[in-house]
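Okay, can you check this protein?
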Amino acid sequence: MLTGDRWVRITILASAYTLTGIVGLSLAIPPGYATAVWPPSGIALAALLLWGPRAWPGIAIGSFLVNVAVAATNASVTFNWVSAAVAASIAAGSTMQALTGAAAVRRWIGLEQVFESGSAMLLFTGLATIACLIASSWGVATLSVAGVIAPDRFLASWQTWWLGDLIGMIVFAPVFLTWRQSLQIGSKPRRLAEVIASFVLLALSAAVVFASPPPTQGAASPLTFLPLPCLVWIAFRFRPIGVALGVCLLSAIAIAATANGSGPFGGAKSSDSLLALQAFIGLTTVMALTLAAAVAGHRQSEKALRNLSTELEQLALSDELTGLRNRRGFLVLADQALRMARRAKVKCVLVFVDLDGLKRVNDTRGHAAGDALIADAARVLAHVFRESDVVGRVGGDEFAVFALLDEHDGATAVNSRLQAEIDRFNAQAVPSMRVSMSVGIEEILPTVDIPLDVLLSRADRAMYETKRRRA
């Protein structure tokens, strides 16, 4: 049963296939079925990849209508039931080709990975190359059996058909598969200006190449590859969607000029010039998209590596139990903060804290209770000190804090705030899980240049002196 959404998608696909097919067949070689430019193959592949294989009737309907139109408007072909059967057979081949290509891409690459690396793009090209053998072989065989094409035109028709479908897949499918990226390539005014300038330059270089007179006596034009540096720039600067749109622009200019007999491929007879143009567009597209995919993959890898590096750094500098800095993290950040405090002439303080009674809790209630007590102590310290201060767990039951002092602040005020927070916490805690801390504080004057490890040792000795007096 066809749902409303499926009907809409089938209708859109059939309409797009029919309209672009009629445009493509305007460049067809006699008797009008094989063309060097076939956008519907790319549209069909993209539709099945984005909407799923259930959209296949749109391809069958569109292909049938296009080929009926060819038979009905071609003076050399008599339109009858045979023509309708030929159109239906060609539609079946085109549908099988799109279904096979979409299944192969999903199976061997994956929709999200097609343009994430150069190797994936090359594999996409290879799969498209093989898939396009289906419609070309099926279609030309159908025309040959029906007597529409002469035996001596079989190979030429097959070659043109196959190349036309292949170019359609690798030129037009990427545009639809990457269109969401177009919302990001020009998100900033400066970026948008660069996008516009790049495409204008590409269009101008293509116009210079393909608006020139055709070469004489088979001589190759040295300007043929002038647009390539523009595509390389677009590949490096923008996402694969930029290259896909750029290739479409280049193809449109090149096809229109070649059809009018100008440009480097305009000197030969029509079928030969379009075949030469096909090879140029195909190789250019594969090169540019592969480069863009490789650049995109490299950037994705760089981003993933930076994220991984950040995560590893966090793991290396953080204490898993409390979420505070571990000993290494505390020393690194406290040393940086100490250097900045000295440059800014700001007084600061180093606090060394020992959590009392942890061994007793571990022995009587287990290590889970001991871990909970350590976490409670960490929360107490986090409430007392600011986010800009450096708080760390530097040992099993030992904590250290590096904090900046206000103008009228001092060690006594810091100790009072800490003891007040401990009392507030203990008022709400069960007696066996109350927090008790021995604290040593070392004030640091900005004019005194003493290493951090020496200051930490002084605070440690002050903490043990406090513990001794309380014993």
Remarks:
- The mean pLDDT is 84.
- The CA atoms of residues 202 and 229 lie 9 Å apart.
- The radius of gyration is 36 Å.
- The chain is about 65% helix and 5% strand.
